[in-house]
Design goal:
The complex is a heterodimer. Chain A is an alpha/beta fold. Chain A folds into two domains: about 1-75 and about 150-240, Rossmann fold, CATH 3.40.50.300; about 85-150, no CATH class. Chain A has ten helices and ten strands. Chain A has helices at about 40-45, 70-75, 90-100, 105-120, 135-145, 165-180, 190-195, 215-220, 225-235, 240; strands at about 1-10, 15-25, 30-35, 55-60, 65, 75-80, 155, 185-190, 200-205, 210-215. Chain A has a six-stranded mixed β-sheet with strand order 6-7-8-3-9-10, sandwiched between helices. A four-stranded antiparallel β-sheet of chain A has the order 2-1-4-5. The radius of gyration of chain A is 18 Å and the shape is globular. Chain B is mainly α. Helix content of chain B is about 80%, strand content about 0%. Chain B is flat and about 70 Å long. The two termini of chain B are about 25 Å apart. The chains are: A alpha/beta, B mainly alpha. Chains A and B meet through helix 2 and helix 3 of A and helix 1 and helix 5 of B.
Chain lengths: ~240, ~270
Amino acid sequence: MIEVDSLTKQFGTKTAVDHLSFAVNKGEVLGFLGPNGAGKSTTMRMITGFFPPTSGDAKVCGISIVDHPAEAKTKIGYLPESAPLYRDMTVIGFLRFCAAIRGLSGSAKKAAVERAIETCSLGTVAAQSIDTLSKGYRHRTCLAQALLHDPEVLILDEPTDGLDPNQKHEVRQLIKRLGQTKAILFSTHILEEVEAACTRAVIVDRGVIVADGTPAQLIAQSGSGSLTDLFRTVTSRDTEFAR
Amino acid sequence: MSSLTIYKRELGSYFAQPTAYAIIVIFLLLSMGLAFTFGSFIKAGDASLEWSFFFWHPWIFMLLAPAVGMRLWADEQRNGTIELLGTFPLSTRSAIIGKFLAAATVWLVALACTFPIVITVNYLGDPDNGVILSGYIGSFLVCCSFVAVTMLVSACTRDQVVCLIVSVFVCFLAVVIGYDPVARALDSFATPPAADVLAATGAWAQLVRWWHQGVSQVVEVATSFGVWNHFASLNRGLFRLQDFVWFGSIILVSLLGTSAILSAKRS
């Protein structure tokens, strides 16, 4: 469903993503791990068509994001890192706007908005202005926007960031449930999440993949039975300073 | 279709917040206030709106049009919502058109709210309503151009204040540069040299002649970038193709520039 082929992004002389290739199939939840600045968000922004890649291509359901961006984008639901929202709108107004942009109208739009509100438990705040919501609700509103058009591919950039433990658990359960019928790529810093929600994980560092496998394989690879140890050995700690 | 969705959202956002109301009220206060005071609308006893009313519009728009347009892209970039727009299946072009039309609509409403002065002038005298309509069209085109320029500036920055200041400055230049007293002052730099210099031969006289030619050409080009040339003729009821082309090109170039800047920022 997602095929990333030798994707590269350079900002000036700096290479943020370096010939990255991987694939995510239907029914798979791929955890995208790596230290800050490893190129996770940049990769996701390229797959979703926000950044044009310097070279390489990403195919979503077989459609190239470089050659047919508009068509490929209809297949993707995307939750950006900071969960950006139009704060002057109400939750339901925002979701209706997103549904309209996705080409839904009439009863299909109404049903899609209702389903997204239900899936993300936003019923109690639906009529509230986004400005007045807590971070957890704002995050879920943005997640609801990604689910509106029932996309085949979900790309979630740190979907549990800034949520409380209960909300984290709910989002993980949701990812797991949705992952049965979709291809999901999500990035995270939290290594327990990999075991809790992923069927497979890759670790990227400085724009290249340094480890790839099922959570069990990765744990075995670490030698000590801890993902954290593996993470610390395969990634460089000076990334932040080098960039 | 997606332009329409963006248009509705933007327009809703203008009227959901105090922005549109504040702008419309201040515009009405300024335009009416200036017409009845410095514009001598009553004292002049002239049943036209050319000097008393429309004359002030470019001056007001140069301050207020950037206030309407400044948030269009600056806000999207600051909030990160540009990432949502960029990953929705819609082209940058339709987003730009939708946003521009929404801002233009705010101004259409503001201009429509000045209708009492049209009623007044019809009650007091016998004006040529065709000329008044043409004045309104000219006025609307001036503010659409200013909104488009502001949009271009707002694509460059995520800071609304920077966008406001830069756009007001650009619009101020466009208003001032073709304004008669300023144009005359600029022209005086290009006063033809005295007859004896013109007749004289030699390097110095040649230099003076070149200077004169150069300055008068620069002044002419600069003046043609001002709004007055084009606004004034519409204000007098003259529909000249060149004026529509001029306003149209300013708007088109600004919108295309916005699109180019937004794309360049991502790559």
